[in-house]
Prior knowledge:
alpha+beta; 4-stranded antiparallel sheet
Amino acid sequence: MENNVGRKLSKEYKESYKLTLEQKESLIGLILGDISIEKALRSRNARLRFDQSIIHEEYRVALFLYNLFEPLVNMSPKVQIRKPDSRTGKVYSSIRFATLAMPCLNYYYDLFYKDKIKRVPSNIGDLLTLPRCLRALF
């Protein structure tokens, strides 16, 4: 697949893109974990937002997820240096990226969110494919 970094993805591409089986299976575990899925006020499509604290320069998980969802992004992951923690004075950093808002993510937003509040769907047992979902959680 061609790298999309720095390119504007066409409306046709966004509307026709179908998640791979690996993306679908991983997404269930990721949403149960720390990844967020959101809709902007004026958008009818959802997007994923990944933000992970960097501990000991650990980029492996973030880069794996970026590569998995790269067909849905047009910007590389960014490292953000945060303000000093008010309690400890320590400075933390994180690595983050977001996908574009795309129709293929709406199903997962609707499945996990009601009135913008994340919830576990009642059919979660049917959605979990243990090897990939569990790997995504850890």
